[in-house]
Amino acid sequence: DYILEHVNRVLKRPLTREDVEGVYAGLRPLLAGENDSTAKLSREHIVAHPVPGLVVVAGGKWTTYRVMAKDAVDEATRTMDERVPPSCTETIPLLGASGFKAAWNRRSRTAEESGVHVARVEHLLNRYGSMAPEVLDIIARNPELAEPLPGADDYLQAEAVYAATHEGARHVHDVLTRRTRISIEAWDRGVSAVPVIAKLMGEVLGWSDVQRESEIKHYIARVEAERLSQQQPDDESADAARLGVENIVPLR
């Protein structure tokens, strides 16, 4: 209701609950406060040293993870006898950040040279930064991988291959839930893309037909368990439904 209220302020035809096809939400570890409204509670974090050898971080959010890490390490080293150099995390770029501006400025030329539409190049740059050429190299070797994944038009097949060859993905659900956002962005949570992803990953990871089929069945079972869990009346029942499908093994 909160989102609909704000969205409808700028729409000529108001949206209703019936227009909503899917939602997702997360939990934020807010610090306890005197206000009953969570919207008014602080989003900041605190670092505590309750007992020797234990540093605790409470509160915070993903977008300030570097500051949280710096504060935690600073607190951990504060009682050390030897001097520890100050944190340099704020000067270390994330993977793909170095050279990003230059890569973005030449995106039209990159599109011409690679034969990939500039909109796709922009997508890859936003996803991988200056590492995007590595994905384009995969497409150059196999142009068919420039096609989108079924049911997830914003993602290219090459990205599934890249996840397995460069990002340590070892299972189909690694690609769908961790290396991409397909599991929460696609209407079917990525089920349509599973056979293609399993085939692509199997080719580069050396899967047998049995393992490939196992990956497909496991992911579909996970989705079904998640859907079932969301129909339960309480957290305990929801957890039991979701945990009805164990993690796939071996992890290799």
Using the coordinates shown, work out and report the CATH topology of the domain at 147-242.
Helicase, Ruva Protein, domain 3
How does the major sheet shape up?
2 strands, antiparallel
CATH class of the domain at 147-242: Mainly Alpha
Mean pLDDT: 91
Q: Name the poorly predicted regions.
A: none
How is this structure best described in words?
- It is a single chain.
- The protein is mostly helical and 252 residues long.
- It contains twelve helices and four strands; from the N terminus they run αββαααααββαααααα.
- It has helices spanning 2-7, 65-78, 100-105, 107-114, 118-128, 132-141, 157-166, 172-179, 182-185, 194-205, 209-229, 235-242, and strands at 45-51, 54-59, 148-149, 152-156.
- The strands form two sheets. Strands 1-2 form a two-stranded antiparallel ribbon.
- A hairpin with a 2-residue loop joins strand 1 (45-51) and strand 2 (54-59).
- The two termini are 44 Å apart.
What is this entry, summarized?
With about 250 residues, the protein is mainly alpha-helical. The chain is built from twelve helices and four strands, in the order αββαααααββαααααα. The chain has a two-stranded antiparallel sheet. A two-stranded antiparallel sheet has the order 3-4.
